[in-house]
Every structure is written in C-alpha cells, then in structure tokens.
Design brief:
It contains 17 helices and twelve strands. By secondary structure, the chain is an alpha/beta fold. The chain folds into two domains: 235 residues, Glycogen Phosphorylase B (Rossmann fold, 3-Layer(aba) Sandwich), CATH 3.40.50; 152 residues, 3-Layer(aba) Sandwich (Rossmann fold), CATH 3.40.50.2000.
Length: 408
Amino acid sequence: MECSEKCIPVIARVKDMNILWITLESILPANTGGRIGVFKRLEQLAKTEKIYLFYPYDNDYELLHVNELRKYCQKVYPYSRRANKKHGLLKLWKYPFTVGSREFPSMKRNIQECIKKEHIDVINVDFPHMCVDLLDLNLQIPIVLNEHNIEWKVYRTIARSYKNIFKKAAYFLDSYRLEMFEKMLFQKLAFSKVTFVSSKDMQYMIDQDIVQVVKAELIPVGADVHEMNYIPHNGRNIIFVGKMSYGPNVEAVKWFADEIFPQIKAEIKDVRFYIVGKDPVDEVKALQSDDVIVTGMVDDVKEYYSLADLVVLPLKNGGGVKVKLLEAISFNKPIVSTTVGVEGTYYASNLIPISDESQGFSKLCKEMILEKEKYPTKEVFEYYENNYTWIGIGRKYRNCLEQIVNGG
C-alpha cells in the first residue's frame, strides 16, 4: 500500500532548487491525462522552486499559453515540432519518428546555456523521448527521468487497438524501435532516479534489470479534490472522458457503445451514454445517436461529471495509470472498469467493480445505476484523498529531488 500524504518526511531545505524541466509537449491547455499529470506536478513544485521549462509544441494555438506558463516558470522555451518534422524524417535511420521529431539543435544549445547561466541543480525529463536532446551534452548534473508509461509498451497496445492495417503496422514497428531507443538511453545516460506512476511498470523495469531498485521511485499521478454539485436531470447518464483520437479510447467507446450499452438500454430505458473529449475521430462520431452523445472538446468536464450517474472505463489496451480513473474518483462518482482501467493502482484489487467481458460489464453498470448503495463511495474516496491528491504527490516529488541534489 502506498504511503499517505501524512507519512511523507520533510527534507531540510538548503536553498530553492533550480530545475531544468524538459517535457514531451505543451502542458497547457491541460486537456489530456498526460498533460494534466505533468502540469499539476510542475504547479506544485513551482510554489517553492525555480523552474526553466523546455518543450516542443504541435500547433500555434498552444503558443497562446506561454504567458500562462511563465506564471509558474522562470523561463519558458517552446520549440515548434511541426517545423521540425523534416528533421524527424531525416533521422528515421537513427530514431523512431516520435523521437527524431523532438530532437532540436536549438534546444540543445539553449539547455547548455541555461545550465551554465542559471546554475541548474537537477534536470527533470518527462518521457524518454526527450532524452534525445541530452545525449550529446556530457552533463555533470543529476538527471531524473519520469517514465509516465513504458512508452514502447504503450505503442504496442495502441497498435493492437487499431483496425487500420497500415496504422497497426506503423505502431508495431515504432514500438520495437522505441524499445531499442529506451534501452540505449539507460546505457548512455546515468539517471540519478527513474520515477514511475505505475507500480506494475516499475516492477517490470526492475525485473528486467533495466533500472536498479535504489534508483526506482513510485510517484503516482493524481487529481484535485472537487466540490461536487450534483445537477438534477431526467434519466440516467453514463460518461466516458478522454482524448477521442487516442486509439485505446476509440476502441473502448466503440466496444461499450456497440456491445455493452445495448444490454444496459434493454433494462434501463432512459439511459444515455456521453463520450466526452477532444478530437473525436470519424469512428467515434459515427456512434452519435439519440442516446449516445459525442461532445467533442468541452471547456470544463466538471459539468459532465455533475450530470453523471456512472463513469465507465471500458479500456482493453493502454499502459500506465489512467488519470481518467483518478479524475472520476475525485468527483466522487461510481465507476465500472476493466482490468486495464485500474492497473498499476491500489484499486486494481480493491473496491472498484471490474469486468473484462461485455455481459459482466453491463451487469455491473446496471447494478451501479439501480443500486448505488452497493458502491463503496466513502472507502474509494478516502483512499484517493490520502494517496492521490496533487499536494501530497508534489511534496513527495520535491523530497525526491532534494535528496538527489543534496547527495542522498
């Protein structure tokens, strides 16, 4: 069982840390699980530390958030990945595209300048892809790698979720290339610490002798605690929240809408299914009907959680801890999940109803809607509040970095 916030020791502070922080993409707007996880951790550390943020961005809209990021960071260095994609194609002989398109000569120069000028204490890297910009720098300061997922495993599960044979083949190929890249990183870069959000992923890397036990640290993802205002409504509402261009999410809502929802509808006539999330692909849009609502991007998911009688996580593929799980718990909502939806968390073996086949999943959904008292709301939320809030996670991560900087 993970340690609660109350038992996290406080490390004696010598000075504010200067942290050079490199991440995979713009973290604002924080509208995906990955972005939320990085932004919330950065937000907590920015309360006491000085952060110098480096990241690629995919479109000009994301540049509008640079000024917002400057509220948390001493300096912000954005780099256009779209303008760098030619570089990524030219580097295909050496790196997977997802890595090569994130290698920036200008970022490497700016990192060296920042280290020298700002007296950086520690480099924090989110996602192994971004280590490509550190490989040739001969750094003498500690580096912490945050393995949000085992990325090559995620690519392999994404490949399984696609029906399109070309996309499936492309993701399978890149998963093997990404696996080789990650193994090479651990040979070339002496990471002071490797953090994981999933206990399952951490144990795998230890068992494979890729990461030493003493260098592995579990720092889970979390969510805020929300004041929940229930909005009265007619009928019963089931919701799924996620980025709807992401293969495992597309696979999940299609399975639920095609095979599970009709079984629920046969018994609960006034039920509706809301698919809430940005960038719905055509396969998802095609699910739209009188009883299945595809929202597209929304300004605030809180409204939909306020209307929800049940949150479902019908995921068959995808790696790491699901932010959408913790977000649903933070809104104190009943949840039905597959094994994949809760893996890597305390909830994998406790409290949340789980089924991996359509009949069992629909049965659990009907029970949660018609007999809410069966759901252990208090126990689920209390464990979350003690172990998965961003304040506690931020404190644990700050202590982890301070131990490294102080030579611990």
